[in-house]
Each structure stands twice: as structure tokens, then as C-alpha cells.
Amino acid sequence: MPESLRARSALGLSMAAAVGSGCWIAWITIIYSADVTLPAGVNALQTTADAFILSTFSLGIALIALGCIPRWATRYGLGGRSLAVASLIGAGATLGVLNSPLLAPALFVLCAVATGLATSLIALRAALVLSEVETKAMIVAMGSALMLGVLIYAFDMMLVLCGLPVLAAAMLVLLLPLAAAALSMPADLGGSENPDAFTGGTSRGRMPAEVVRLTVFIVMLLFLLSLTRGYYPNLMESGQFAASRSLVGLGLLAAGAAMAALAAVSPRNAAFGTLFYGLLVGSVLVVLVLALLNVNATVMGDVSSVLYGMTMLCLWALLCRVSFRSGRSAVQVVGVGFGAACLGTTAGVGAGSALYTAGVSTAVLAFVMAAAVILCVASSLFLLRIDDVKALMQPSEEELEEEWAPLAATASSGPIGVSARSAQEGETASDRAPAETVAALDGYQASLRRLCAVMAVDYGLSTREVDVLELLVVGKDAKAIADELFISFNTVRSHIRRIYVKLDVHSRQELLDLVKEAPQG
Fold first, then answer.
1. Three-state DSSP class for 48?
2. What distance in Å separates the CA atoms of residue 201 and residue 203, rounded to the nearest whole number?
3. Measured between alpha carbons, how far is 77 from 232 in angstroms, rounded to an integer?
4. How large is the average pLDDT for residues 492-504?
5. 3-state class of 277 per DSSP?
């Protein structure tokens, strides 16, 4: 595939992910700000908190459940039709949450739970799209999604302030279907004939111990961070709580712009995983230290909200990065990891609210926050270190040693025979004149493209499968192909599997023999 076409393909995936994720982020932000639309006689803060806890808990449970059955979820739950149905259910449930004073408590709970279950599919679809592009493009898309989400939220709140609540509600209800539509646009992420199929990556056996430790680490950090989010909003006046949203929105907008700009100017091989691990731990520590210092409740609420948004974004990027680099299924890694984060968040908010309700003294609260700081530092030193995160991002030895691993001897002979003839004649590459070498390589590449083009017609290979085939027959392994084509290790492995099935071969040698025997048209 020409470089410009590859770039356009990656750009299309990134744009779809940015728009879909942006609509989803906007929906989350608005639905948890529903107190501005509730009548005066209703405890708006409590109602919003209940909706948040119920929806987030349901989201976490659904993500973990789907992450435990990644193949089923990928095949049946994340297709375009399933996503459309889920988005419509979520849109209807959103109306129920907005009109909670008119509903029986049981029906309100049902609507809140339905929003969590519906958005779990949208979240995993976004993870699949984001994990199919290189990390640099993924981060730019995520930063753009955060900015888009904040801008949509600001526009919707402006409609409310202008006395147009019906229009604002209609806009909110449409966000989930719009997110589903945008994320369904890149239907053929893996080059499959099934427009709803995703590559999914490998998900054999149990979760690796490193991923389990990452999940435990995530739960701990999000629980500690959410303690403040459950405690401090109760100390704020309702007017202060509403006004602080503007500052939080500006903070998140600046964070999204900084993330996108930082990724845009960074090299492709930058240590993004290390960066996000540091930001994840640093954000939690900042919030805990500020709480330990007993800063003003309004300042604490604003800072914790901004850093919570940044933490969840860093966590999302880290999980997608782990999936991209390791070859593990994005549904499995992001589903279990982010689902655990949602449960940790729910537990933290509940514990923070319980501390407020119990009327703990300032001294006791300071002790709790000091213990939380120590726990956060200890977990980053002993439970999950930066080196562990780096190791998570590399393909496992098992995956690299599978039958499509590079065959050095076969690659050295070459399907066209240029290198083989030189070896038989006792000639090395350094003995060949530069001009002759360049001419031979150009001729080889042209011949190879003709062969692969013929095979594409004969065997029904997709354009992406042809790209992978060209690199396979010159001896490149799955990791090198992923780097060259700007796609994930997961996707390359799936392409190779489909190529083997279509060509009815079972090893790299059989594939090479078939290519050599193919007519050149």
C-alpha cells in the first residue's frame, strides 16, 4: 500500500475514534451534570451522585464481563448493529435519568444501570478502534476527543442557560447514537469480509500475571483518587459546585490540547507508556497531597475533577498501548483494566461519601490521606514499576516464536532468487556494486508486487492482506510488519491467519513456495 494511502487509512481510524470518543465523553460529562436540569425541590447533588455510582458500577461490571469473553464480545457484541441497538437503549435510559423525579426509585435504578451497560459496548468499540493505530496517532485522537467532548458539553450547558432545556436534552440523547455511528464507520479494521469483524488480538488462556498486577494497581490508584471526589463535593455550596464546572472544563480542554500537541511533536518510538504511567501516578499523588494539606474545598474539587479526567485518559492510553504493543486483545486488556478502574472509582466515591457522612474530624481525614499517599508510593515501587509497564508492551516470547516468526534461512534465499544466486556463486552483498544492488532490489520489489497482485485476484486477498503478504515473503516478522504498516501487532497477526487460510498454507515455507510458483501474469 502506498505511504499516502496508509496515512489516510490511519487518519480515518483516528478521526472516527476522536469523534466517537468525543461524543461519549460529552455524554458522560453532561449526564453527571444533570443537577442543573432538576427542579428546585430535588436533592440535585444526591440524585446526580446516585446516577454516577449506579451507572459507573454497571459500566465496570459489564466491561469486566465482556473482557473475560473477548472472542464472543468481539464477534457478537461490538458489531455495527449491536452497537446501534445499545446506543438507542442508552439514549432511552438517558431520558429516564434526566427525569428522575418523575420515576419510581426502581425505574430510576434500572435506567441508570442501562446507561452503564449500553456505554460499555461503546467504550470497547472505541478501544478496538484506538488500539488499531499506532500510539502516536492514538494519543492525538484521544486528546482531540477530550477537547471535542468538553466543547459539546459547554454548548449543551449554554442551551440550558439560554432557557432551551428541551433542545439541550435532545442533543444529549443523540450523543450515544452519534458515538456509535462514528465508531462503526471503520467497519473493516482488520481487512475481513465481515464488515462487523474486528481483529481482537490474542486472548488465549488466562490473563498474564503482569496484566493482573496492572489491574490491581489501577483499582488501588482509582480508589485512592476517588476518595476525595466522594468527600469534598459535599463541602461545596450548590452554586459553587455549578460554577466550578467552567474551570474544570477549561482545565480539561487545556489538558486535551497539551496531550495532542505533545504526541504530535514526539517521535513514533517515544516512551509513551512510561509517560502515561508517570502521569497516572503523579495525578493521584497530587490530589492526595493537596487533600493532606487541607486546601479549600472548592479548589480541591476543581483540581480533583481535572486530574481525575486526566487520570482516566492516561489509564485508557496506557491500556490501549499495552494492547497495541503486546498483541493481547484490546477487549480483554481494556475491558478488564478499565472495568476495574470503574469499580475502584465507585468504591472510592462511596468511601469518601461515607467519611463525610460519618463526620470524621480533620485530623482523622489527614491521617487517611497520609496513609493513601504512602500506599500509592509503595504500590508504584513494589506492585507495578515502570519496568513492568515496559515489559507489558512487548510481544510475548510465545507469540514471537509461533510458526509465522521470521525464517532467517528462507528469507536469505529470497523468493525471486537474487540473494540465492549470489550465495551459490560465493558472492556477498558487499561484493556487489551499489548500482547493481539497487537495480536488483528495484526489480525484486516490482516482481514481488506483480506476484502479490496476481495472488490477490486468485485468492481474494484484501488490500491490507496484500501489504502484509509482501512483507511476509521477504522475511519480516509480525512485529516488524506492524511497525512498517503503522498498525497494531494484533492486526498483523490476524492478517497472517487470514492469509494462511485463504492460501491454504500452514507454514511460512509453504507460503514462500506458493509465492514462487505463482504465475506473474
1. helix
2. 7
3. 38
4. 80
5. helix
